[in-house]
Amino acid sequence: MGKQKDKSFPVVGIGGSAGSFSSFEKFFTHMPADSGMSFVIIMHLDPHYKSQLTEVMQRYTAMPVIEATDGIAIEQNKVYLLPPNKDMGIHNRKLLLLAPSKPTGIRQPIDYFLQSLAEDQWNRSVAIIFSGMGSDGETGIRMIKEKLGLTMVQDPETAEYDSMPLAAVGTNLVDFVLSPEEMPQKLIRYMSHPVLAEEASDQVKSSIENANAIQKILMLLRSHTGNDFASYKKNTITRRIDRRIAYYQLPDYGHYVDYLQENPQEIDTLFNELLIGVTKFFRDSAAFDSLKNKLSHVIQAKTKKESVRVWVAGCSTGEEAYSVAMLLIECLDTYKSKDKSRIQIYATDLDADALDIARAGVYHSNIAADVSPERIERFFVKKEEQYSVKKELREMIVFAQQNLIKDAPFIRLDLLCCRNMLIYFTTELQRKIIPLFYYALNTNGIMFMGPAETIGGFTDMFAAIDPKWKLFERKKGNIQMNKIIDFPFHVAKQPMNITKIEDPRSTASEKSVVAIFNKVLIDKFTPASVLVNEKGDILYSNGKSGKYLELPSGEAVVNIHKMAREELKYVIGNSIHQAIAQEGTVITEAVKLKEDKHVRMVSLKASALREPGMEELVLLVFEDQGLLGKKPRTGVITKDNSNAKELEKELVYTKQRLNNTIEQMETSLEELKSTNEELQSTNEELQSTNEESLTTKEEMQSLNEELMTINMQYQAKAEELTRLNNDMKNLLDATEIGTMFLDNNLDILRYTPQVRKLFNLIPTDVGRPIVHVVSNFETPFDENDIKEVIDKLTIKEIDVKTKHNEWYRIRIMPYRTLDNFISGAVLTFTLVTDYKQMQSRLQVLQDYSASLMNTIGEAVIQLDIELSVLAVNTRFLEIFQIAEKDVFGKSLGGFLKERWKTEIPDQLLNKCLRTRVTQSALINIGEKEPRTFELTAKPFAEETNTTPLIVVMINEQKESRK
């Protein structure tokens, strides 16, 4: 949070794009003017458009609406707007305007501001995403949630454009998904909860009752998930718990414990909250530039047969692992190497859901703000509004679930990335993990940490090669790892004892008299002594022990048996053994040490020490008795120095050693007998097991051959399936016919790209019912037509019109499997706009032709190729006093023969049909009142088979009428 002396207040960043004006109106209409919050609106605006947004927003709220200026300090109960063609950040609650760093189309102004807001305001930050196209705001949501802020997203069902809300919801990090009018009340209730109040927070959490409640929560987490968060920073854990308490509006920690017991699914939610790991591609790009330079040297130093091993610990959703993989490939290109098999990358995380996203390798289009166009083109494939990593990049990385605290590490590493992970661990746990990283790395291996992380006091293990971006190199040398780490590694071990080193610049005046007295007493008057364990490892030393111990050549060791002078080795070994066996003190006097031309007498005292919870220790005290032949310093009884006396003492000492050796040999012999019997029994079992293993080996070889055969068949099938998928894709694309596959529940299984013109579909709509997807038809899509096809196993065709005045013919067919099982329906959408337009024009022409026929004074008849009547005009119906239905489809020759009692019309029509020449004839009918009709038959066209084929005109002569 920003370093403010005054009381902080929530800062709400609201992002919106296309279709979000109504959302802003509903939100601010329901937001009180005295909420105590500050609101910052970030919208996608045309860089050259003179915005009237301030005047528009002022209509929705009584709060002052201000267009942001560079350096303006935000205040409570005010609304600030992003100016066009600017990027905006926030620092210490001041809005800062910058020139756009990316071209239009790649810029993500909402993400840019929300990331800045998260770093500046932490848990007092709020992110809200409204309607819009694209995925801007998705990364910002992650950053706000990482810093303990609140995230809210408009319900995609209420959004005019749901791409941005769906991208945000897809992070699984959104606290509330609501309609805009519901957000203000939830926001106010959450931010005003007492547990989030800064002035009372620490006092509340420090009470014994709440401390016990937090321990109960951790116990429930461990029991339910198997993961212990006791080594995580208490402040991080309690703040995450605070968010859940405020989310449910519970009074305190005790009530939250009750809620967890009653609702076990909330334990999983809290577990995911604690595991929030936010990352993005090339986070801190300058750090990755520095890393790339160092990796070039690592690859250059490798031989062609050596591989480059990388471990990305805490990889979250995989962006960091893919970023490192891209750098390594680019480094290989520098040295003109194409052997990517040399690169082995292991990426691990505790969050299984995050690993699923990483394995899929599909990310939203907003990554274009962090990944250069050249890298996107080389390493990604664009699928609709998303980017998918290419196969060559994906196959370089192995993603696995791992608990860093308990599970074994990867070893022989050239690079270890652990960015922004150690900051969540306690100091004690960090002191355990950093030596573990030292153990995992090769000499000169690189450790890449986050900007806020350090190696603590382990400067003997790592050297900083880029202090600014926390790049460290493993130092050369051999450090005894068994002194630092116990394997298997676990967190139950007690913290390491760190010996405090006094500052030599401290003056005596700063120390107490008692401290000075103790120091002088120990240094000047206390004999040299060392504390060892049963194996002889030196744990602590005091005084000047250089007279008795020497540093051996070769590998540095701290063991009394290897460091003791030759004359003391057997004495020390025997004393340690006797002290432990007798559980007391063993004194060996008058041990001779050669010193130049003199002999020094030394007394050795070995005392066994037993402390609860510790291994058995022995304190060895060396007491100098002076040079041989001189008066001893400490009241040692003077004895005769004759050779007989000396030999006698050596004999006694040798006898003691011999007795100890015999006792040890007898004990060892009995143990060896017992061990021999056990080994004989074990040998028989091993022989039996060996025979079974041989049989099993033969069976495994046979099984392996079968598996290889099956594997080859599967590979062939997979290749065939890939070809078929490619053929199917090209076939569907070539036909330009939209196709959609539904299951029996009318849920969408698959669709071709052409369908998106008719339905507002995105990739996440697969699996949703088709009735839940908005269509572009003038009339709503009727699901009953599809159900009828599935139930009756029929085929149905429907012509529908879109809102853009286009016609489509929907053909609905049942989906039949190879075993003739009905498993849904197939919908094809064929564009028939041209056909509909031609049909409409033809209808107009027919109507026009009919109207022309009715204006002619003669009777006109249209005939088809069978000389049947297709159409007649009004005059024909008047002459014969007949309705159109009584003559439609009948033979005209037969009709006239019946009426006029003559064969002439039939002969005339057949001749016209045969010769394709116009034929005419006069026909007289009637005896009492004779009438004469002129019959003319004209072919419609000479070389056509279409209808109408012949047009016949009947004209009654005027003389006959008289």
TrEMBL record:
Domain CheB-type methylesterase: 5-194
Reaction catalysis annotation: L-glutamyl-[protein] + S-adenosyl-L-methionine = [protein]-L-glutamate 5-O-methyl ester + S-adenosyl-L-homocysteine
EC category: transferase
GO BP annotation list: chemotaxis; methylation
EC number from the UniProt entry: 2.1.1.80
Keyword hit for Transferase: yes
GO MF annotation: an example: protein-glutamate methylesterase activity
Bias (Polar residues) ranges: 677-693
Active-site feature positions: 17, 44, 136
A family per Pfam: CheR
A single Gene Ontology CC term: cytoplasm
Residue span(s) of domain CheR-type methyltransferase: 214-473
Listed CDD domains: CheB-CheR_fusion
Xref: PANTHER family: CHEMOTAXIS PROTEIN METHYLTRANSFERASE
Protein name per UniProt: protein-glutamate O-methyltransferase
Keyword S-adenosyl-L-methionine assigned: yes
SUPFAM superfamilies: Chemotaxis receptor methyltransferase CheR, N-terminal domain, Methylesterase CheB, C-terminal domain, PYP-like sensor domain (PAS domain), S-adenosyl-L-methionine-dependent methyltransferases
Residues in coiled coil: none
